[in-house]
Amino acid sequence: MAIDPTTEGVWNVDSALLQYKEKVRENHAKVRPLPLMRGFIDVSDIDIEDIYVDLQCEPFASQLGESYLSTCTEVLLLDENDAERRQKLNMVILGLPGSGKTTLLKYLLKQYSKQKKVVPLYIELKSEISGGFKSLLDKGSGVSVQDIQSYMVNYFSAKIGSQNGEKLVNEICNNIGTGKYEILFFCDGLDEISVEQYM
Predict the structure, then answer these.
(1) Which positions ≥6 away from 59 have C-beta within 8 Å?
(2) Concatenated DSSP letters for 57-118?
(3) Between the chain's N and C termini, which has fewer beta carbons within 10 Å?
(4) What does DSSP say about strands 182-188 and 118-124: parallel, antiparallel, or unpaired?
(5) Is 55 within 8 Å of 70 (Cβ atoms)?
(6) From CA 196, how far away is CA 199, in angstroms rounded?
(7) What value, to the nearest 5°, has the Cα angle with vertex 91 and ends 20 and 175?
(8) What digits encode the pLDDT tens for the residues 54-87?
(9) What is the tens place of the pLDDT at every residue in 125-163?
(10) Which residues pair with 186 in a beta bridge?
């Protein structure tokens, strides 16, 4: 069901954000199975939750020294109330090709997009490296809020239209540091980019 961010001519930030998150889930939280057999007709997209299998992480020690096992979801999917850990939320998912890194990333993307404050951005690096994201990384100096805002305007506009996208990005960026929104970048495919492609 499409959500109109305007209600009787008045723009609504909550509706625009909800519409954006639905678009992200529709575009990125689904997978297309490979047709492995001849005559396999149904190659429609499958919701990531229907195929996701949570994996056990390697044993790790808590701050008190206890060693325990946990699942990927328990380690990587942080509750909205866990503010201290969320502020340090920088993760890299490692694994061999075909081990499920993208599946895990898309699962996390969908789960985090359900959280009220989170604004998820899915970036497929292999396709983005020649576009706007490369210019963002190529600055040489630090990336500013204005640089991220400019990139986000293009990204959001592609999802929900230029007018709604720009308004939503302005609302989010004007509230950075207030705790009202959290921007999470989900970058996929770093291992698929050669040094030559990046340079």
Answers:
(1) 67, 68, 69
(2) PPPEE-TTS-EE--BHHHHH---TT-HHHHHT--------TTSSHHHHHHHHHHHHHTSSSE
(3) N
(4) parallel
(5) no
(6) 5
(7) 45
(8) 877 666 666 666 665 677 777 788 877 777 777 7
(9) 776 555 556 666 665 666 677 777 888 888 888 889 888
(10) 122
The token pair that represents 180 in the structure block: 């009202």
Q: How many CA atoms lie within 13 A of 90 on its CB side?
A: 1
The torsion angle over the Cα atoms of residues 6, 12, 17 and 23, rounded to 10 degrees, is -10
| Sign of the alpha-carbon torsion through 115, 75, 106, 148 | positive
Ramachandran class of 191: left when φ > 0, alpha when ψ lies in -120 to 50, beta otherwise: alpha
78 is written with which tokens? Answer: 């942080």
For residue 187, what are its two tokens? 């970058």
The C-alpha atoms of residue 71 and residue 56 are separated, in whole angstroms, by 4
**Any idea of the CA torsion for 118, 168, 22, 82, to the nearest 10 degrees?**
10
Which candidate, 28, 13, 16, 12, places its Cα nearest to that of 184? 28
The string over 68-87, giving b where at least 16 C-beta atoms fall within 10 Å of a residue's C-beta and e elsewhere, is eeeebeeebebeeeeeeebe
Mean pLDDT score of the chain: 77
- Note whether 92 and 173 are within 8 A (CB): no
